[in-house]
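Quick sanity check, GntP family permease:
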Amino acid sequence: MDIDPILLFLSAATGASIACHVNDSFFWVYNNTLGFNMNTSLKTLTVANVISALGALFGLFLIEIFFF
């Protein structure tokens, strides 16, 4: 397979960041900083993580197409 190892690493890291759960320390920092209850924090942080991860994957696809 002709896959650049750096792009492979970045795509794996992006896929791993798509979900955040209650046992994640960032979830509690997010929850306590914004003062949300647990349900609101899960909903907003999940949507933000999915949008962020999909945007990063799209960026990686563009990098693969134009630079490699």
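Posting the structure with no commentary besides this: The chain has one domain: 18-67.
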